[in-house]
């Protein structure tokens, strides 16, 4: 395995602001499935550097939401441990021709979160960080930005709903086509399907002025082959899961096209909509077979070292 490195793009003063604990700082941990091991490792690095709790606002989407909940809730290694349950994307898409859920049982992940790494509202609130989880309302296809108050009856629904992709797995006794149901009756699933880049929300609703973005993949465009596989999977999901609904499929399609739209912004801009931004991203795609399922992978250790170097370096 080649050496994995970390690159910092954008306005480096964002890092200084986080180190100083300035007001108006924010952290966004994005989606990426198995690549989320990158976010988990960066958050561990920030925790070791003593700067993770300096941020004032945070938003997580999909695997990024899970990793943030674990890191802020006192389970700094949980995200890395739970990656043993993540199925390689290639196998998922290959199986999408014929009910892909045979490859993954989300009830196993649900049990691990509820029994081993449960969300502890008291610990989260003690950090003082305004934290939101992005989910997709399955009926409307629109994003929702949930807080602990939105799921006071079952706080574990925050990470669980944001990481669940209907069609990729089954949930034991639950239907394959449905996400997690909240008290309001709505079904909710992976937030990456509806809003991969919630910068406007963080600015307008959370008062963020300086934002650190954790991007789990290299800042390079998808290849035509990768896009073709995604669209093929989408077509197969429509065939196998017709009850998911038109809005969900439109959100899935947007998920594919948004990736390349954001890349030139993250690579070349220091401000978006008046917010100063800095982006941390890996130099190479992190592949599932490079991840040690029990201990920190070589990729993770290297990422932590690079993060520590960036976060504690002299001004």
Description:
This protein is of the alpha/beta class and 315 residues long. It has a single domain (6-305), classed as 3-Layer(aba) Sandwich (Cytosolic phospholipase A2 catalytic domain), CATH 3.40.1090. The chain is 41% helix and 15% strand. The chain has twelve helices and ten strands. Strands 1, 2, 3, 4, 5, 6, 7, 8, 9 and 10 form a ten-stranded mixed beta sheet that branches. Strand 2, helix 2 (37-48) and strand 3 form a beta-alpha-beta unit. Mean pLDDT is 76; it is low at 87-97, 99-103 and 291-299.
Outline the fold blueprint:
Elements: E1 6-10, H1 13-20, E2 25-29, H2 37-48, E3 57-61, H3 63-72, H4 78-82, H5 89-95, H6 106-115, H7 121-126, E4 130-137, E5 143-146, H8 157-163, E6 180-181, E7 187-190, H9 199-206, E8 210-214, H10 224-240, H11 246-268, E9 271-272, E10 275-282, H12 298-312
Parallel strand pairs: 2-3, 2-8, 3-4, 8-10
Antiparallel strand pairs: 1-10, 4-5, 4-7, 6-7, 9-10
Helix pairs in contact: 2-3, 2-12, 3-8, 10-11
């Amino acid at each position: 395995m080649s050496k994995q490195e970390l690159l910092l793009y954008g306005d480096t003063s964002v890092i200084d602001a986080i180190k100083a604990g300035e007001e108006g700082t924010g952290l966004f941990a994005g989606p990426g499935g198995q690549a989320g091991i990158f976010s988990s490792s960066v958050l561990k690095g920030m925790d070791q550097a003593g700067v993770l709790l300096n941020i004032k606002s945070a938003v997580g989407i999909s695997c990024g939401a899970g990793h943030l909940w674990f890191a802020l809730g006192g389970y700094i290694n949980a995200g890395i441990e739970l990656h043993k349950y993540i199925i390689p994307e290639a196998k998922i898409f290959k199986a999408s021709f014929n009910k892909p859920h045979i490859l993954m049982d989300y009830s196993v992940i649900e049990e691990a979160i509820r029994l081993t790494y449960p969300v502890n509202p008291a610990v989260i609130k003690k950090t003082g960080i305004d934290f939101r989880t992005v989910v997709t309302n399955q009926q409307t296809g629109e994003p929702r930005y949930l807080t602990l108050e939105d799921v006071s009856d079952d706080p574990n629904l925050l990470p669980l709903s944001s990481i669940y992709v209907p069609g990729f797995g089954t949930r034991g006794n639950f239907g394959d086509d449905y996400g997690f149901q909240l008290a309001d009756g709505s079904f909710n699933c992976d937030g990456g399907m509806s809003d991969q880049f919630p910068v406007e929300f963080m600015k307008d609703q959370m008062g963020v002025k300086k934002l650190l973005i954790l991007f789990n993949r290299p800042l390079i465009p998808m290849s035509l082959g990768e896009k073709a596989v995604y669209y093929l999977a989408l077509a197969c999901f429509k065939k196998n899961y017709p009850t998911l609904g038109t809005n969900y499929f439109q959100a899935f399609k947007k998920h594919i096209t948004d990736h390349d739209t954001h890349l030139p912004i993250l690579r070349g801009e220091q401000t978006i909509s008046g917010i100063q931004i800095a982006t941390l991203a890996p130099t190479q795609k992190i592949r599932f077979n490079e991840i040690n399922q029990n201990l920190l992978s070589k990729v993770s250790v290297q990422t932590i070292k690079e993060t520590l170097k960036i976060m504690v370096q002299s001004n």
